[in-house]
Design brief:
Helix content is 70%, strand content 6%. With 132 residues, the protein is mainly α. The protein has a two-stranded antiparallel sheet. The mean pLDDT is 89.
Length: 132
């Protein structure tokens, strides 16, 4: 259930970021490219982004732990931008998906995606029942 919520939040955050033309981030939908295909593409890219974040992001965070300490966590912006760029590279191989204009706009887009994920993740995350 958490993974599905995470995918939906990622898809929403990616959609919001693609609405900002200055970021040079766009989505190429499945053919024929209508609304349903755009939504399905956003969900697929959200799932791939969640998997990339979970698998590769965790490995990078473990290896780069000293850099996180030295930069007081600011390296996470670069890592998140790299993970977004990696997701765009993976999905572009399919002929649909995410495209990022440049790495630094990808970093800015990743910051916005992180903010949206944090806000909606706190609201929509399944709550554990408290024992009394």
């Amino acid at each position: 259930m958490r993974f599905i919520i995470r995918v939906v939040i990622n898809a929403f955050a990616l959609w919001v970021v693609t609405l900002i033309p200055a970021l040079e981030v766009s989505i190429r939908a499945f053919a024929p490219g209508e609304t349903l295909q755009l939504v399905l593409t956003l969900l697929a890219v959200g799932a791939i982004f969640a998997l990339v974040n979970t698998i590769i992001g965790t490995a990078i965070k473990i290896v780069a732990f000293p850099l996180y300490i030295l930069t007081f966590g600011l390296i996470s912006f670069i890592v998140n931008g790299f993970l977004l760029w990696l997701t765009a590279w993976i999905t572009s191989g399919f002929g649909w998906g995410l495209s990022v204009g440049s790495f630094w706009w990808g970093v800015v887009a990743a910051i916005l995606i992180s903010i949206i994920n944090a806000v909606f993740g706190a609201i929509l995350r399944p709550q554990k029942k408290k024992r009394r």
